[in-house]
Specification:
alpha/beta; four-stranded mixed sheet; rod-shaped; translation initiation factor activity; Translation_initiation_fac_3_C; protein biosynthesis; 4 helices; Ubiquitin-like (UB roll); T_IF-3_C_sf
């Protein structure tokens, strides 16, 4: 059995634990392969016990006094940790943010078309960032024409979506966020 096994570099998340010869405490509290307490002993004796069983000595907690180590198969432990991480990754939901851009002079038909797209995104549980872009001198009309246009969009979406952030100005853009209703 190899005494200096380490996780491969570049793996998704390296497991940073000390094993076998890397454990250099004068005394450790030892747990057996089944989790039973084997008592406090020197780390050399604990390493020898693990070697006799064909297993590894793995540090569980370095914060305890004395540090806690366990006799186990490190490869199996690493494999089970990786499986747990994959299961956790499957269970988490990723909310995607889509962006739909408008101009203050966007025509009625184009506006309706973009509103339909926003509704499709919201049905798929995505958040939507609605951006009204002002070019050149259009910025002068941001609080009148621009606000009127974005309010029209908000009114069309109010029944099917939740407005997460009311329209705000950020430079030359008026931004509003909508998402699925809770």
């Amino acid at each position: 059995m190899d005494n200096k096994r380490k996780p491969k570099k570049g793996s998704q998340q390296e497991i940073k634990v000390r094993i076998n010869d890397d454990i250099r405490y004068p005394e450790v509290r030892l747990l057996g392969p089944e989790g039973e307490q084997l008592g406090v002993m020197s780390s050399a004796k604990a390493r020898q016990m693990a070697l006799e069983q064909g297993l590894d000595l793995v540090e569980i907690s370095d914060k305890a006094s004395p540090p806690v180590c366990r006799v186990m198969n490190f490869d199996k432990y690493r494999y089970e940790l990786k499986k747990k991480q994959q299961e956790a990754k499957k269970k988490q939901t990723v909310i995607e943010t889509k962006e739909v851009k408008f101009r203050p002079k966007t025509e009625e038909h184009d506006l309706d078309f973009k509103i339909k797209n926003i509704l499709k995104f919201v049905e798929k549980k995505s958040k939507v960032k609605i951006t009204m872009q002002f070019r050149g001198r259009e910025i002068v009309h941001a609080q009148t024409v621009g606000m009127e246009a974005i309010k029209k969009i908000a009114d069309a979406l109010r029944e099917d979506c939740a407005i997460l952030q009311e329209p705000t100005m950020e430079g030359r853009f008026m931004i509003m966020f909508v998402g699925p209703k809770p």
